[in-house]
Each structure stands twice: as structure tokens, then as C-alpha cells.
Amino acid sequence: MSAVRVSQAESVENLAENISINEHSLQRKGHKFVQKIAIPSYLVAIVVGKLGSRQIGPRTTVWSEQEFVDAAAFDFSETEEMLQAAEKLMGEYVWGIYDILVLPPSFPFGGMENPCLTFATPTLLAGDKSLANVIAHEIAHSWTGNLVTNRTFEHFWLNEGFTVYTERRILGLMKGEAFRQFEAIGGWEVLKETVATLGAENPLTQLIPDLKGVDPDDSFSSIPYEKGFAFLYYLETLVGGPETFLTFMQNYIVKFKLTSLDSSTFKSYFIDYFEHEGKGALIKEIDWNTWFYVPGMPHYVPQYDHSLFDACISLKSRWIDWNPSTEPNPFSKKDFKTFSMSSPQLQEFLGAVLQLKENLGLEKIKAMEKSYELCSVKNCEIQFRWIRLCLKEKWMEQLPMALKFVTDQGRMKFIRPVYRDLFAWEEVREQAIQTFKKNRPNMMYVSAYTVSKDLQL
């Protein structure tokens, strides 16, 4: 539950008097929890199931179905380090415990920041801790979202943009500033794809959209996350850099903790704070109206450090330049030795190939599989990009892999783009639709609802 357990399970009175069940009386146990910190209603959560658990830190126990406990304990073993990094940045973690629950694969999100008990998708269990950045994101919500909350969901970026910013500060503290910049580049690429998918003039690509008459499920995208982050990164560079902006963030949390606010309140506080700090002239150039209300990509293009990203682009260029009709295949897994962080950079390499306007060509994609054995990779972020590449090249032999991928789990980040790719491939469209219809009873509502719109059903 999104609270702290205050007692072990205790037997209570049989509440089903006069009912006989196979000659055994119905026994119940009571569990007591307390949440002393006021939270918005959307953060209240209760989970019931046959769960195993393991303590992985002084404040953290992982919970899951028994068969996932070992994997969850391993992949999330850096949680305490993330919590300590977050406290260095944002101040005291006030919630007491930070437990993690691995939900069934149908869970539609990467994570959900219920206080004291983060819900997590099993797609994070990569076996190498490379996808635990989602846990850093949910930890960051302990300040941005759970302590300071958007007043309405038109202002969702105040939750998610701030949380992505804090997540990347946590990862930067743990893995270096170059990694924070690398993650920001990946986020910028995600933002570009989202804007291209929704349309650059779509009002839902505004940082503050008008949601009157709009189903909230239709508005959900990476916009408040990545456009929100881009805005905060712009403000960081404007006011003097990461440490200056972090001091502002710390004061912002103290000022607004246990309250809800909207973007105009944030704007007023930001201006007052930096005018008081003698930086009024620096912030006069901020075009608040454009950032808040103009759809599409931001007018500001951030200048990130590409030191970790360059290796991804270099490998992509080698694949583009290779002529398989005149040269033997020069690629192997040794290529990844140029990656200082193997899995994240492999993700971005595949993402960069996927974003090519001209196809790489099926012959090269088949050679890529032979060289790197990507079909057998466990990491879902890598699987996702690889499957999309196979679909882009219309590699029919890999269609079963794609259909299995969208059936085995229901995370919208993965299944919606893959289903859209399947729908765009006319030859397999009907098979994709039938796969969805067959699996729909096993999906959570929001996944089924949004995919049905992607498939024009």
C-alpha cells in the first residue's frame, strides 16, 4: 500500500458468520498501515496478491510474484544509492520506506510513484541493471509530484518535466555529467518522434494543453516529460548552470511542499526568485507564452555534450557506408567495445538507425542480426528498437517475434509504436488486428483503449 506498514498481519474475527466453506471457517488477517503525509488521491494505491519479497536496502524491500523476486532484487540493487543521491540533491526523503512492487506484465506504464511503494513493470528486469533508471525517475517523484503536485493535468509537466530533470541529475551524480547529457540526448530524440507522430500543429504537443473535452488517455505522451525537461534545461543554462538551478529547485520544493500549483504560480515564483538573486536581466529573454502554448518542438535547441552519443553515431555511419555487395561483413560484437556503457548506447545506436529517413536495407538488417544476435537480447528497450527496425524493413521472418512482443507485455511505451508499425505494413495489418483482439481481454483498459485507436478500430 502507498503507506508504511505498522504491524505484522494479525488474525481478526471471522467476518463471514453463518457461512460454511468446506467445513473450515473463513480466516482473515488484518494489516495496518499509516500515511502521515498528505497525498493527492491519485497516489493512493493498494495491491493484493500472492507475493514474495526481499529486503535490498535499509529502506527498501522488493515485492513481486515469487518467480521474479531474485531478478528484481538484482536489477534494483542500486536503489539505496539512488535514494542517497536524490537526498544530496533534493533534501531529506520524508516518506520513510521506499519499497518496489513488480507488477504483472500487463501493467501499462514503466512505473507509478505511489508513496512508499513504487509500482514497476517487469520489462525493467534486463538482468544487467541497465533499465533501473526508471526507479531513479520514481524516486525523484518523491519530491516532484508527491510533495509538490500539479494542480490540474493541463500542468502535468510540473510533475513529469521536473521529475525527468531530477532523475537525470540523480543519474549524473551516480554516473557522471556525460551520462546525464547522454540521457538528455535520448530524450530529445523521443520528443522529436512524439511530435512527428502527433503532428507539429497538434495542440496536445503544447506544454500546457487545453484538455477541456479531451479524454486524459488521449493526451498522454512524452510531451510533458521531455518538452518539460527541455524547458527546465533551458532555464538551467540561462540562470548560470546546474548548481544555480539546483539551489532554486531546493527552495521551490520547500516553498510549495504539500501543495498543488499551476504553471503561472511556478512562473511567478521563478521570476521573483531570480530577480531577488540579481539575475532579472538574464531571465527577461524567456518567452513564456511560446514555451507554454506553442505546439511542436521547442524553439530552443539544447547544446548537449555528445561524448557518449558519438560512438552510437559512428557505428551507425559505418553501417550506412558498408557496401555488402563488394565488402565482407566487418561487424561483430567487438563493435560494442567502443561503448563505455554497453546497453544504453546500444539502445541509442538502434534508435539512430531507426530514425534514418532512408531504410538501411533488409540485407544489412539481416547482417546486423548475424553480427549482434539481437533477436536473443533480453533487454526490452533493445528488443523494442530492434523489432521496429525489422518491421521497418518488412522482415517477414521476424513478424512472430513482433506479435509475441506486443502480447507478452502491455507497456504502452512499447506496444503502441509496434502496433502502429504493424498497422502501417498493409500485408500484416489484419494479423496484427486479430492478435490485438485475441489478447485484448488480458490488457489493462488504458492500453487496450489507446491501441484500439492506433489500429483504427
Shape: globular
Number of helices: 19
Task: Provide the low-confidence segments as ranges.
Answer: 12-23
Strand order of the largest sheet: 5-6-7-9-8
Residue share in helices? 40-55%
Largest sheet: 5 strands, mixed
Helices and strands in order, then pairings?
Blueprint: E1 4-5, E2 10-12, E3 28-30, E4 33-34, E5 52-57, E6 60-64, H1 69-75, H2 79-90, E7 99-102, E8 111-112, E9 117-120, H3 133-140, E10 148-150, H4 157-175, H5 177-198, H6 216-219, H7 223-239, H8 242-256, E11 259-261, H9 263-276, H10 280-283, H11 288-293, H12 310-321, H13 342-354, H14 362-372, H15 380-392, H16 399-408, H17 412-424, H18 429-439, H19 445-454
Parallel strand pairs: 6-7, 7-9, 10-11
Antiparallel strand pairs: 1-4, 2-3, 5-6, 8-9
Helix pairs in contact: 2-3, 2-4, 3-4, 4-5, 4-7, 5-7, 7-8, 12-13, 13-15, 15-16, 15-17, 16-17, 17-18, 17-19
